[in-house]
RNA pseudouridylate synthase (Bombilactobacillus apium), 290 residues
Amino acid sequence: MILERHFTVQNLPRPLSVRAALNYWQLPRKWQHQLRINRSILINHHYQSFNQLLFNGNRIDLALSADLKRQRYLPAPRITCQILYEDTDLLIVNKPAGIKTHPNQPEEKTTLFNELTTYLSQPPLMLHRLDMLTSGAIMVAKNPLIVPIIEAQLANKTLQRTYLAVVPYHPQMALQARITAPIGLDPKDRRKRRIDGSGLAARTDYRILQHNQQYALLQLQLFTGRTHQIRVHLQSIGCPILGDPLYSSQPAGRLYLHAQHLSYQLPFQKQVRTVFAATPASFYQLTQAY
């Protein structure tokens, strides 16, 4: 598969060498090597040394050969997700609570990725996941060229994910705090995770947006992407998410966890875009002051 990109350089903070600009845009080093060896990046229609300076307004044409295989998904019979943002590179949707991000078996056709296969007429490319019971903003790729770029943003925290959760309110709760307990597997239940001193590093920051005597609405910033991270971290401080069937003893009509917004850097630019998924009204209703 040949991946191409044609664009005009914008928003460089200063003139950068070709090599520095490709690093600035977070293009993988193996692809940079291919561009250099094959001379398949043109600056104003000519190949230039990687030490050549780039300026805003320069024309870039690049072509990469990549052996990429798309996962296949059956098309869904209907679409329940809301499209929040779309361009030629990616798609951001509001995933309803209660549907899986992707199928575990090839014959499944009711997951988000089945719906997006119907919408796009081709399989989406995975960038990150949301738990089945979590609603909110999730990003998928349409263009294989941007997959490693967005994955790099996830790794270096350029891509920011913010969540809302409803938890039991305790007067001793800090108004804002950072939770850094490492997370590992729960040996007693393979579905679950637990705080484990030898587990994977994890960081979640939260602040209380509003509360009453019963419940608090938290805004949470996710800095790592461990399975069930927010759910486990909040349970660990005595504030399990309302309606969590694995980590809370308090049932509700749904898991009260919602991916509120995503902020990311546009590929081959430094402009940041933030996309919001409307918060279900019940999150505010449950936590408003009496």
Notes: The radius of gyration is 22 Å.
